[in-house]
Amino acid sequence: MRCGIPEVVLAEGKETDDLVAIMLRHTEVAGRCLATRVSPAQAAAVEAAAGKAGLLSRHEERAKIIVLSKGGAPEKHEGVVAVLTAGTADIRVAEEARVIAEEMGCTVKTAYDVGAAGVHRLFPALQDLAGAHVYVVAAGREGTLPAVVAGLVDKPVIGVPVSTGYGYMGGGEAALASMLQSCSVLTVVNIDAGFVAGAHAAQIAALARRA
Amino acid sequence: MRCGIPEVVLAEGKETDDLVAIMLRHTEVAGRCLATRVSPAQAAAVEAAAGKAGLLSRHEERAKIIVLSKGGAPEKHEGVVAVLTAGTADIRVAEEARVIAEEMGCTVKTAYDVGAAGVHRLFPALQDLAGAHVYVVAAGREGTLPAVVAGLVDKPVIGVPVSTGYGYMGGGEAALASMLQSCSVLTVVNIDAGFVAGAHAAQIAALARRA
Amino acid sequence: MRCGIPEVVLAEGKETDDLVAIMLRHTEVAGRCLATRVSPAQAAAVEAAAGKAGLLSRHEERAKIIVLSKGGAPEKHEGVVAVLTAGTADIRVAEEARVIAEEMGCTVKTAYDVGAAGVHRLFPALQDLAGAHVYVVAAGREGTLPAVVAGLVDKPVIGVPVSTGYGYMGGGEAALASMLQSCSVLTVVNIDAGFVAGAHAAQIAALARRA
Amino acid sequence: MRCGIPEVVLAEGKETDDLVAIMLRHTEVAGRCLATRVSPAQAAAVEAAAGKAGLLSRHEERAKIIVLSKGGAPEKHEGVVAVLTAGTADIRVAEEARVIAEEMGCTVKTAYDVGAAGVHRLFPALQDLAGAHVYVVAAGREGTLPAVVAGLVDKPVIGVPVSTGYGYMGGGEAALASMLQSCSVLTVVNIDAGFVAGAHAAQIAALARRA
Amino acid sequence: MRCGIPEVVLAEGKETDDLVAIMLRHTEVAGRCLATRVSPAQAAAVEAAAGKAGLLSRHEERAKIIVLSKGGAPEKHEGVVAVLTAGTADIRVAEEARVIAEEMGCTVKTAYDVGAAGVHRLFPALQDLAGAHVYVVAAGREGTLPAVVAGLVDKPVIGVPVSTGYGYMGGGEAALASMLQSCSVLTVVNIDAGFVAGAHAAQIAALARRA
Amino acid sequence: MRCGIPEVVLAEGKETDDLVAIMLRHTEVAGRCLATRVSPAQAAAVEAAAGKAGLLSRHEERAKIIVLSKGGAPEKHEGVVAVLTAGTADIRVAEEARVIAEEMGCTVKTAYDVGAAGVHRLFPALQDLAGAHVYVVAAGREGTLPAVVAGLVDKPVIGVPVSTGYGYMGGGEAALASMLQSCSVLTVVNIDAGFVAGAHAAQIAALARRA
Amino acid sequence: MRCGIPEVVLAEGKETDDLVAIMLRHTEVAGRCLATRVSPAQAAAVEAAAGKAGLLSRHEERAKIIVLSKGGAPEKHEGVVAVLTAGTADIRVAEEARVIAEEMGCTVKTAYDVGAAGVHRLFPALQDLAGAHVYVVAAGREGTLPAVVAGLVDKPVIGVPVSTGYGYMGGGEAALASMLQSCSVLTVVNIDAGFVAGAHAAQIAALARRA
Amino acid sequence: MRCGIPEVVLAEGKETDDLVAIMLRHTEVAGRCLATRVSPAQAAAVEAAAGKAGLLSRHEERAKIIVLSKGGAPEKHEGVVAVLTAGTADIRVAEEARVIAEEMGCTVKTAYDVGAAGVHRLFPALQDLAGAHVYVVAAGREGTLPAVVAGLVDKPVIGVPVSTGYGYMGGGEAALASMLQSCSVLTVVNIDAGFVAGAHAAQIAALARRA
Ligand SMILES: Nc1ncnc2c1ncn2[C@@H]1O[C@H](COP(=O)(O)O)[C@@H](O)[C@H]1O
Ligand SMILES: Nc1ncnc2c1ncn2[C@@H]1O[C@H](COP(=O)(O)O)[C@@H](O)[C@H]1O
Ligand SMILES: Nc1ncnc2c1ncn2[C@@H]1O[C@H](COP(=O)(O)O)[C@@H](O)[C@H]1O
Ligand SMILES: Nc1ncnc2c1ncn2[C@@H]1O[C@H](COP(=O)(O)O)[C@@H](O)[C@H]1O
Ligand SMILES: [Mg+2]
Ligand SMILES: [Mg+2]
Ligand SMILES: [Mg+2]
Ligand SMILES: [Mg+2]
Ligand SMILES: [Mg+2]
Ligand SMILES: [Mg+2]
Ligand SMILES: [Mg+2]
Ligand SMILES: [Mg+2]
After folding, report:
1. Which CATH architecture does the domain made up of A7-69 adopt?
2. Could you tell me if the ipTM is greater than 0.90?
3. Using the beta-carbon criterion (under 8 Å), do A183 and B141 form an inter-chain contact?
């Protein structure tokens, strides 16, 4: 595990056979391996191979992640990560963040689709998430939810621009720009980069553990 | 007055002599003429020439507008325009909107610098502005205030992106993009185009008068 | 009805089952719900479900909108919205504006394909539309029709850039840019955002009612 | 004279001494030489040197062009070029086109500032320009005048985007984009490239001469 | 025929039935009608309908143009247009220019694929094209052929950027930019806009006729 | 102190008198106030006013920050922030991060100019910084240092793109893009946004304290 | 062989019959011809035609190149080219470089997928490649490997940006920008332009031969 | 000397005192140090300090480079670099390439201003440069000279885009794009990056030496 982050393979664009081989090899060496952006067919093939090899597998469909391991769930620590989305279209990206953070030992609490509907859903959501050490907030179109959250909590907030929207800068660029220009204190990852946000959040939450 | 909008001259980039001559001629024909983006020196020259010609002048410094007329203030009607800004850097643009709307016969109410400080200043501001027929909201950096206002009032809202901010899309482009991508219902004008927003708002407010 | 705008769901990218469920729930609570960008298959499923649930449905094919309601057409007021297009490719976007404005109680008059053919078709069209309180004008490619209309009428004009055209800035960006830079007084919405233009226009037209 | 176009030197960014030397040498060889974008100081130095060398000079201030020649005005032919501008800020660019076309033997007729004021000034202008073989039309901001002219005349029209305007694509890019996307038939040159438009128009007008 | 340019319909994106109806109506009124960017299926339907209606049709496959007329070929005049391409991928765009220029009465001479192979193919090609009144030059990737041609002939040259190439600005933008920045005298049309270049060239060539 | 972040005023573009007044008022209410991007003249005026008002002031020249407070240094906790720069041009941005993190109670360790000189300076620098809870890494031009650091430490890393460089994307855009695309796990702030990076890092480091 | 580079045909977008005919003709004249970006079907057709015509063929699948020749492998010289990739997605581009360099007489040594895994794989790879006269380094996403290599070897390094990655500048633009901004000494080719990099490297390596 | 390239300091933006100190220190350690982009004042201060320290200095004004050394000119080898420019505005960038290549032991031959004047100046220039091992070609505006040269010589060619030109992509971007899209084989450096091109060319020319 380099820098506390598990081996991660990008499944997209890889031949299924190659993906299976790479994952088995990594799991052999490191005890644990993730693939992101797996298609259902790729996931099925990996699960079958894992079964034959006596490895455990975890397939998260919405997150499009599959995890192979020798020994099941990773060791838990006290770090808590909150993951929020503005709309439903952002959930696929948020789920990627959730699974990677869990695989790095965090407890993850989620509150999805709390942005479009207005503040009346956001306030109770934030109360449910109280106790989190760090917030990952995914939002598309104008991407303002991360700044709103950062104005309400005193913990670090990471914004994830999502490639929803249409027209001018509609592929996530408007969301990226508005997060970078925000008057609130927040950091940002690439458009749709749920994996990076989740791993970074887990590194932050791990600080709570060690101290 | 073409389409209900007074003659307007862009002073920026014009020789002072030319500006004076154009404004005197327009006022002669149309009874009233505005210049936007006037420098202090240009304004002084126009005021002096107006005095000699027996015309009335109104110089709004922060708005950088000067108005010449034969007969003083324009005829008032019942239309009310609200003008808001997120920060102090947006005021110069908002003032341009205010003056043009007043010159088109509207009552204008303002609430400046209500964005950065958070919701606690926005709510009382909106109460003060109650009764307005249309809202002009100027904001730079991530430009989210117009969408917030549009989610709280049931009248038309016009967003004005302002060229504050730095770095990526820091010349008002991030604000423009986020307003165009907004999930709220609002329309937008060019970056720093306070004049267009004010004149459009005045056309809207005039509907309240006529009915 | 938040801010006078009915519940609106973006059908694009949603599972048909989810769409049906969301719309039934919203209609239950609010009495009325719209979905935009519905595919024919989605529309058929929604209509079938509405029938079973004893709800009324209205499917506008060119607008790609479906409306569910408990009680049929919305209450009409005196506000009149005019919707124009430059070409035929802009009609799909204009229709989205028309339907939402109707659903917000306005009378809508349309004049489509009056730009390319030149001024000889525009003048009679504007005469037919006389009495409108606000103009929505959709145009692609160089996007100049909104500015032309704004130079001829004394009511507020909203430009809608449409993603027709090819080559340099051919996805609606040239139209957006030319509307923002226009010397005429007009406001703008995102590329293809007929919904936003129609809802904003309806908010404006509603002023005529109340006064 | 390569391809019928006189020797042209870009004065901007050149040392005055170098400019003088280059122009004297070119005039010696080719009988005639132009410099564009000359500062007043550069023009004065060139004129002084021309006087000493027994050469004729022509300094056009608004065009910022200086011409040296052994034998005065170029030979005239029957070709007629029309040059129009939408506003006053476009005149400096239009003048560059006018002078180069004259130096290539054309008669040039101009009609400046006929765009902003609306159609009532354009129609009489076009009547004055009747008989022209080609039209050069300079326009900034949304840059629509060339397309309007092209819809009214049956001769070739060349659009020149001008770098006026502010905000989004306000350095002439919006004008360039709208001219390239135009439904009318017109060709385009670079932003502020009055020289290219004028020389190209003169090549066109020369066809009328030869036939 | 508005401004000497025949009625032209953009077939792309139109229903076949609508296309047929529009073309029949236009031909009825104007005697002649073109459609550009027609698919093979659209062309077949238009040809069949033309046959039934007793109209003449001309289908140019590589140009993707179909022409309907009451009276066959247009009246010829003395104007000659030259059309060149740098590579083979540019031919589809060049053919569009050729057909429209022919439909406007010009003789058109072509020289295709003379750029990539180097100067040894270009010089004989230019000799074959001698006598042309105007040159249309289509080029993708870096788009330098128009400037090369403009440096060798003394007639007007129109550059057409073509959307070939890949990578940075590989959709024709690099070609557009290099043509606009060219030190040679040439004008430009939109990427892939063979129609505009051909119609503009025909307007130029028509000057040779009249004189 | 909203969300644990002290009151911060952006001095750039503010009148000196306004700046002084705002800072005195904020310090009165909150006990502490920072201004960023202060000019030397602004700083001198603030310091003078603070002296008269019996307030303590801290002026950090390279960071261009001035701090007013009633009670001197903020309360320290155990959190440790590391701040690195690739070159010397990045130091002004890094210093902004350092001062804000100190004002939020952190210990800050710095290692400047460790990128250009190659890995041989980076390794000892990272050893000096061992024990830090979070790393802020500022880099211009191609902006690769944050990714290199993130590959070597197991703590969260925040990249700050700096507006050094020239040519293509030379205003910090290349650095921003390369950080967002990085295969390493890191989050990013706006170009030159040292303040945001420092405040976010301090929020992270504060987790170490509380646990 | 123009400039020492063999005849090269871009297969993409060409009809199979045309491709076969062009390649046979070129091979007839020049003794040797390459096609890049060939589909499997195109390659099969070319190979079949080559067999009938008594020509030798070489099909490199991952490089998507097919070579026809009268006399087999090109004459070898002492020049050695090294080709490296950061990841596996870059191999298709690197292979294009490898094959063209071999066809120009070079020995090519490769080291693929040495970037993502970190420095521990790069150092042994560079030792294996010792003796190379020039390095071609392909990398996508943030594209930093070429700069790292250029900091470790004293031979010329050519960077090839690859169109992998997603989100902001994810089509190879971030890699292109970071290579152009690099503090290391390296030159760059277009995104995915393995052919250009390989041919340029072969021209460099040929210098070692001649001296 | 890292990778055969001398220590280089970017003077632009550095305090004169700092520059002097850095250069003296580097020269002490490495025997030789360059600074690029030095102002006349900076150069004078460095020369004075060098005199006092008993070091040799070489100030190249047009290149804006100053070199300090213990032992005078670098050791020469057989490598020959050719440096060409299209226009006079490109010379400042070309000179930067020339001086760095000389400092790396190459003989440099130059041919400046051979592009705009057409092929008749280029051919004799290339004959004068015969025997060069590598060509550096600087060009602004449309940037086509590097491709022309690459079509005429069989040695490696490096294109340097220069930030001359105005209007659309007029800051060197058009030149960069056209070089990257070129059908000829050439590599590219950043806009105005004469230093990188010269150092890379010197690395290539050094191959001729060693063989
Ligand atoms: N065609 C459309 N254009 C712009 N906004 C829309 C459109 N359709 C729905 N919306 C808005 O998009 C937001 C998210 O919609 P939904 O995800 O469906 O709940 C809501 O605020 C809707 O009012
Ligand atoms: N250097 C800086 N970078 C980013 N944001 C800042 C900076 N300095 C102040 N701010 C924030 O900018 C917003 C507007 O500041 P002001 O206009 O001074 O009230 C406040 O929310 C500040 O926290
Ligand atoms: N993969 C490639 N990348 C860049 N240039 C290529 C490639 N393949 C062929 N070319 C060049 O593209 C130009 C046009 O190729 P063609 O159209 O096939 O004659 C020729 O100069 C070829 O050398
Ligand atoms: N004109 C220049 N263009 C590109 N890189 C340069 C230039 N001058 C210096 N450099 C490089 O920039 C890096 C940082 O320079 P410095 O900040 O002066 O240490 C060093 O690796 C230098 O080799
Ligand atoms: Mg917060
Ligand atoms: Mg509202
Ligand atoms: Mg109007
Ligand atoms: Mg016309
Ligand atoms: Mg010519
Ligand atoms: Mg790490
Ligand atoms: Mg090196
Ligand atoms: Mg060559």
Report:
1. 2-Layer Sandwich (3.30)
2. yes
3. yes
Give the torsion through C-alpha atoms of H145, H151, H157, H161, to 10 deg.
Answer: 20
* Contact status of G183 with chain F (Cβ, < 8 Å): yes
D118 in contact with chain B, both atoms CB, cutoff 8 A: yes
Please count the residue pairs, one from chain B and one from chain F, whose beta carbons lie less than 8 angstroms apart.
23
Q: Give per-residue pLDDT as tens, A17-43.
A: 999 999 999 999 999 999 999 999 999
Confidence (pLDDT) at G144: 93
Give the C-alpha separation, A197 to A93, whole Å: 10
Contact assessment for residue D62 and residue D88, using Cβ atoms and an 8 Å cutoff: no
Residue with CA closest to ligand 4 atom 5: G183
User: How distant is the Cα of F42 from the closest Cα of chain G, in angstroms?
Assistant: 35
Same fold across B8-69 and B80-210:
no
Chains A and E touch (3+ CB pairs under 8 A): no
pLDDT, residue F119, reads 66
pLDDT tens digit string along B20-36?
999 999 999 999 999 99
The answer to whether the CB of H167 falls within 8 A of the CB of E180 is yes
pLDDT, tens only, G74-93: 999 999 999 999 988 899 99
Residue B54 falls in which region: left (phi positive, over 0), alpha (psi -120 to 50) or beta = left
Please indicate if any CB of chain C lies within 8 Å of the CB of E7.
no
Q: Concatenate the DSSP letters of all residues of B68-136 into one string.
A: EESSSSPPP-S-EEEEEESSSTTHHHHHHHHHHHHHTT-EEEEE-S-STT-HHHHHHHHHHTTT-SEEE
Q: Is G167 part of the contact surface with chain E (CB cutoff 8 Å)?
A: no
Instruction: Determine the distance separating the centroid of ligand 4 and the alpha carbon of H93, expressed in angstroms.
Output: 15
Nearest-neighbour CA in chain F from G177: distance (Å)? 5
Assign G3 a pLDDT band (cuts: 50, 70, 90).
low
Chains that touch D (3 or more CB pairs under 8 A): B, C, E, H
Cα–Cα distance measured from residue C20 to residue C11, given in angstroms and rounded to the nearest whole number: 10
Owner of token pair 């034998």:
D71
Average pLDDT score over chain D: 93
Residue of C nearest to D149 (CA): C118
The subunits that touch chain G, with at least 3 C-beta pairs less than 8 Å apart, are A, E, F, H
**Backbone torsion region of residue A50, taken as left when φ is above 0, otherwise alpha when ψ lies between -120 and 50, otherwise beta:** alpha
Mean pLDDT of G120-146: 95
Please check whether residue H177 touches E, CB under 8 A.
yes
What are the two backbone dihedrals, phi and then psi, of residue G61, each rounded to the nearest 5 degrees?
-70, -50
Where in chain B are the domains? 8-69, 80-210
Is D192 an 8 Å CB contact of chain H? Answer: yes
Contact across the interface for G167 and A13, Cβ inside 8 Å: no
In CATH terms, the fold of domain E8-69 is Ribosomal Protein S8; Chain: A, domain 1 (3.30.1370)
Q: Is C33 in the pocket of ligand 1 (CB under 6 A)?
A: no
Per-residue confidence (pLDDT) for residue D117, from 0 to 100: 58
- Cβ count within 10 A of residue F211: 14
Pairing of strands H65-69, H56-60: antiparallel
Q: How far apart are CA H49 and CA F30, in angstroms?
A: 52
Computed from CA positions of residues A148, A151, A152, A156, in that sequence, does the dihedral angle turn out positive or negative? positive
- Determine the 3-state secondary structure of E102 from DSSP: helix
CB contact under 8 A, D167 and B192: yes
Distances (CA, A) of A168 to B138, D206, F47: 20, 44, 46
Question: What does the radius of gyration of chain G's CA atoms come to, in whole angstroms?
Answer: 17
The residue to mutate among C2, C9, C162, having the most atoms of ligand 1 within 8 angstroms of its beta carbon, is C9
Q: C80-210, what's its fold? A: Rossmann fold (3.40.50)
- Give me the mean pLDDT over the D4-17 stretch: 87
Residues with CB under 5 A from ligand 6 (ion): B 150; C 3
- Residue E179 CA to residue B57 CA, distance in Å, equals 50
